[in-house]
Amino acid sequence: MGRSQLEKQKTHERIVTLAAKRLREEGLEGIGVADLMKEAGLTVGGFYKHFASRDELVAEAVESAIGSWRRQQEDKGIDPRSISLDEYVDTYLSERHRDHCGEGCAYAALTADMARSSDTVRAVATEGLRRNFDAMTARMPKPETAEARRKAIIASCLMTGALGLARVSNDEALSDEILETVRSFVKELPQAE
Amino acid sequence: MGRSQLEKQKTHERIVTLAAKRLREEGLEGIGVADLMKEAGLTVGGFYKHFASRDELVAEAVESAIGSWRRQQEDKGIDPRSISLDEYVDTYLSERHRDHCGEGCAYAALTADMARSSDTVRAVATEGLRRNFDAMTARMPKPETAEARRKAIIASCLMTGALGLARVSNDEALSDEILETVRSFVKELPQAE
DNA sequence: ATTATCTATAGATCTATAGATAATGC
DNA sequence: ATTATCTATAGATCTATAGATAATGC
Fold first, then answer.
1. Fold of B3-191
2. How many CB atoms are located within 10 Å of the residue A89 CB?
3. Of the four, A7, A77, A84, B153, which is 20 to 30 A from B120 by CA?
């Protein structure tokens, strides 16, 4: 016990990354500090040398969760902007994403929790939401137009909503129907009207 | 202390109705048994003569929350089926609904919590989801067609998703933009294609 | 006599802190 | 000497239960 500053920084990141996953799985009030540290291979005591409070961890974890998909793509050497609407929709509204909440979209997993959260968390979430709308607008034809932004907002609400309801249904046929219906609709959205 | 059976039944309903509101506000793990009973003008002790466990209350409260809108309409003497898509969209995607989570749609308020819940809760939620899809299908032109059902699913996902994201944003302009954009889109949905 | 609710509390769980331990880094 | 993590625990909170109290209803 007693580690270098570099190791502390890595430990900090490990806790945040794990929290970003576990909180998406269990909700922002889900996992406790002790259990989380145990899963990270640590003990409770060290926690408060990293975070002033559990809330502070939650804020960092939400920020990390919001940026996780973008970071994953960049780590694979992929520019997220190069991913087309069709590709994005297929992975977002996939059975895999539905069944792996912890690695997925923070907005689908934590909508209500975020809305109830502290100002800090909501500010982070709102900023991320804006960036998501912008990224979606860029995937529409004529991205400078108001029509592109309109469709980007529609697509975003549809996708988070569909993933959420697909996760609610314990009838897999109904769940799949939701995913498939919305997948094909969003793909046709750029050509609509 | 010591009440009639009729009063007990009314007390039971009062607890469930209050829980349906407070759980939509704070999430399914939000309010505790003691606080809830206090708000109902009662004390902790009586709780377990009404429910075997907190989970049992949650299940009843979720069922109550899912049916609350329908019941409200019926109490006003309105047949929910007589409400048009346009009317429904305007109240669903209103600032009022956004700002009053406790009286509103259970799916928008509790999506992620429901998905994580016990089999009992998920079964109730899935059944309600099916009924919602059916009710929305009936509001579309040619309700017997597959196209009507497709649009009903789209509209449902869009509306729950939009309300959820509108609640996340702490920037009211962005929040209003989401609501307005989706409102007008859903109203045009029946005529689309 | 039965029972709906009350007061009081046991037991579990969870956040946060205090003090010890064993590395780092000047 | 400093500090990152550990062990141990205080204090708050929450679910559930036990036993008392005061009505109901045969």
1. Tetracycline Repressor; domain 2 (1.10.357)
2. 21
3. B153
Buried b (16+ CB within 10 A) or exposed e, A34-54: eebbeebebeeeebeebbeeb
Tell me, in Å, how far CA of B8 is from C1' of D23?
12
Which tens digits make up the pLDDT trace of B47-104? 999 999 999 999 999 999 999 999 999 999 999 999 999 999 999 999 999 999 999 9
DSSP 8-state secondary structure symbol assigned to residue B81: G
Give the closest nucleotide to B47 (alpha carbon vs C1'): C5
- Cβ atoms of B119 and B59 closer than 8 Å: no
Per-residue pLDDT at A5: 82
Q: pLDDT category, B6, cuts 50, 70, 90? A: confident
Residues 6+ apart with CB under 8 A from A139: A83, A84, A85, A88, A152
Cβ within 8 Å, pair B181-A113: no
Model pLDDT, residue A7: 87
Both tokens assigned to A52: 């002033």
**pLDDT under 50: residue ranges of chain A:** 1
Tokens found for residue B186: 């859903």
Taking the complete model, does pTM exceed 0.70, yes or no? yes
pLDDT value of position B2: 60
Tokens of B30: 């939000």
CA of A8 to C1' of C26 (A): 19
Name the packing angle between helices A54-75 and A5-26 (round to 10°): 90
Q: Where are the domains of chain B?
A: 3-191
B168·A114 Cβ contact <8 A: yes
For residue B97, what pLDDT is reported? Answer: 98
